[in-house]
């Protein structure tokens, strides 16, 4: 099984939607821009958001088992995916990529 790296590439906040629809949440997301996580297959990395893991885990598993080329050429690097968590108020975009043995 291949190791897979998840990198936080963008954190967005929709303040207008939060003000209109969301009940105040003291600490909704602990992700930081540039933060990386290394996955060993199906196991959620320590410190990785549980809700975000539900969104990205199927892509991680596919890459860990050698799958690639999601949606017939969507990504320039076929061994990667750009996936956002499902938080409609503050989505976080993650670059998920298979690690080369040399980059471990």
Q: What would you say this structure looks like, in words?
A:
The structure is a single chain. By secondary structure, the chain is an alpha+beta fold. The protein has a domain of 68 residues. Helices cover 21% and strands 25% of the residues. It contains 2 helices and 4 strands. The chain has a 4-stranded antiparallel beta sheet with strand order 2-1-4-3, with helices on one face. A hairpin with a 7-residue loop joins strand 3 and strand 4. The radius of gyration is 15 Å and the shape is elongated. The two termini are 14 Å apart.
List keywords for this structure.
four-stranded antiparallel beta sheet, 4 strands, 104 residues, alpha+beta
Shape: elongated
Number of strands: 4
Order of strands, main sheet, comes to 2-1-4-3
Radius of gyration: 15 Å
Arithmetic mean pLDDT: 92
Q: Separation of termini?
A: 14 Å
Task: Find the structural class using helix and strand composition.
Answer: alpha+beta
Helix content: 10-25%
Which range does the strand content fall in?
25-35%
- The number of helices is 2
Order of helices and strands: EHEHEE
Low-confidence stretches: none
Largest sheet: 4 strands, antiparallel
């Amino acid at each position: 099984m291949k190791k897979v790296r998840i990198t936080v590439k963008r954190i967005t906040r929709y303040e207008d939607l939060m003000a209109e629809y969301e009940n105040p949440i003291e600490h909704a997301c602990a992700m930081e821009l540039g933060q990386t996580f290394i996955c060993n297959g199906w196991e959620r990395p320590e410190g990785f958001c549980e809700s975000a893991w539900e969104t990205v885990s199927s892509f991680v598993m596919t890459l860990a088992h050698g799958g690639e080329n999601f949606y017939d050429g969507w990504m320039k690097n076929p061994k990667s995916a750009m996936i956002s968590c499902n938080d409609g108020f503050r989505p976080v975009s993650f670059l998920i990529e298979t690690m080369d043995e040399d980059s471990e």
